[in-house]
C-alpha cells in the first residue's frame, strides 16, 4: 500500500484512480458484470481497483467474501462519492434554474410505453430544452444507464426498491391479460386448470426482463407450474409466435401494441382471479432534475391514462369478437 495520505485533489487527478469503475463495482457487486458494462475485461477491472487501493493506501474490497463486498473504508468512500454527486447535481440544477439555461434531457423508456409517452413529452417539453434524447431498453439496462450518468430520467417497469439514492414515482398500472391464437376455443372466463390442459405451451418472457420476473413471481405465489419450453425477450417475436398458433402468453396490453401490423389472429382475455398488475415508474437520481421529473410525471400519467387505457379497452372489444 502507498505511504502517506493523498488528498482528494491528488486522487481526483491521479491516473490510478477511476471513480466510475469503483462505483460500478460497488453497485453490481460483480467483476464480470462491471467488465461487461464498460466493455473491458475482468482483469482490467481488477487491476484498476488494485491501482486505486495502492494509491489511496487502503483496501476497498473484502476479498474473502462473495459476491463482491466493500471494506468499511470502501463503504465510507462509496457513500461520500454518492453524496458528493448528489450535492453537485443539486448545485447544477440551481445554476440552470437561476440562469434560465435550457438543459439537455436524456430520457430512457421501456419499449412498450414509448409510443404513448414520447410524442407528448417532446411536444410539450421540447421548446424548454436545449436537446431531448431518448433511449429504449429493458428496465434493468435503463437503471444501470441512469446510475452511470448516461440517463437523467427513465420510465421503467420496476420500482427497484432495493436501489438507494433514486427517486421513484408510480405513473400507471395496467392489468395482466391472457393472449391466445385464434385456434384456441373462444371463451371469456378461463380457469388455471383449463389453461394447464391447453395443447399449446405458455410462452415465457425472458427471465431477466421486468415482465418475466413479474410473471414468475405471480406464478410462484399462486403455486402454479407450467413447462418452460420457450422464453422470448422480444415483444414483437412473442406476438408473432402467438399469431402463428405456437403458444399463448401472460402479458400486458402495452406489449401487444409493439406489433407493427394490425392484430388479426389473436384473442385477448382477462386473467383468472386474482389478477395482477404491471406498474410503471419514473426514476431519477435523488435531487436531480426535480422540476423536469415533476413535469414529465404529469405528462406520462395523462398520456398513459388517456391513450394506453383507451387502446386497451378497444383491444378487448375487437379481439373478443
Automatic annotation (TrEMBL):
Transmembrane segments: none
InterPro entries: LysR_HTH_N, LysR_subst-bd, WH-like_DNA-bd_sf, WH_DNA-bd_sf
Domain HTH lysR-type: 21-71
Molecular-function annotations in GO: DNA-binding transcription factor activity; transcription cis-regulatory region binding
Superkingdom of source: Bacteria
Keywords: DNA-binding, Transcription, Transcription regulation
Xref: SUPFAM superfamilies: Periplasmic binding protein-like II, Winged helix' DNA-binding domain
Family: Belongs to the LysR transcriptional regulatory family.
Protein name: LysR family transcriptional regulator
Amino acid at each position: 500500500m502507498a505511504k502517506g495520505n493523498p488528498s482528494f485533489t491528488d486522487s481526483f487527478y491521479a491516473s490510478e484512480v477511476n471513480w466510475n469503475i469503483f462505483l460500478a463495482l460497488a453497485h453490481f457487486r460483480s467483476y464480470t458484470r462491471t467488465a461487461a458494462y464498460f466493455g473491458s475485461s475482468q482483469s482490467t477491472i481488477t487491476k484498476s481497483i488494485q491501482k486505486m487501493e495502492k494509491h489511496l493506501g487502503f483496501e476497498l474490497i473484502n476479498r474473502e467474501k462473495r459476491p463482491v463486498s466493500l471494506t468499511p473504508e470502501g463503504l465510507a468512500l462509496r457513500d461520500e462519492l454518492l453524496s458528493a454527486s448528489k450535492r453537485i447535481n443539486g448545485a447544477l440544477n440551481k445554476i440552470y434554474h437561476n440562469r434560465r439555461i435550457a438543459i439537455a434531457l436524456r430520457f430512457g423508456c421501456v419499449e412498450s410505453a414509448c409510443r404513448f409517452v414520447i410524442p407528448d413529452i417532446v411536444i410539450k417539453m421540447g421548446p424548454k430544452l436545449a436537446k431531448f434524447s431518448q433511449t429504449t431498453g429493458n428496465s434493468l439496462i435503463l437503471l444501470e444507464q441512469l446510475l452511470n450518468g448516461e440517463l437523467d430520467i427513465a420510465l421503467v417497469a420496476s420500482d427497484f426498491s432495493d436501489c438507494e439514492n433514486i427517486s421513484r414515482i408510480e405513473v400507471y398500472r395496467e392489468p395482466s391479460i391472457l393472449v391466445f391464437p385464434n385456434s384456441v376455443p373462444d371463451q371469456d372466463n378461463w380457469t388455471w386448470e383449463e389453461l394447464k390442459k391447453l395443447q399449446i405451451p405458455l410462452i415465457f418472457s425472458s427471465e431477466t426482463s421486468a415482465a418475466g420476473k413479474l410473471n414468475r413471481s405471480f406464478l410462484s405465489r399462486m403455486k402454479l407450474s407450467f413447462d418452460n419450453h420457450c422464453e422470448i425477450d422480444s415483444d414483437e417475436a412473442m406476438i408473432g409466435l402467438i399469431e402463428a398458433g405456437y403458444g399463448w402468453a401472460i402479458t400486458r396490453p402495452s406489449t401487444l401494441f409493439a406489433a407493427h401490423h394490425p392484430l388479426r389472429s389473436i384473442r385477448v382475455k382477462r386473467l383468472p382471479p386474482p389478477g395482477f398488475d404491471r406498474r410503471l415508474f419514473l426514476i431519477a437520481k435523488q435531487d436531480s432534475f426535480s422540476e423536469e421529473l415533476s413535469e414529465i410525471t404529469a405528462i406520462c400519467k395523462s398520456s398513459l391514462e388517456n391513450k394506453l387505457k383507451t387502446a386497451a379497452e378497444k383491444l378487448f372489444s375487437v379481439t373478443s369478437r
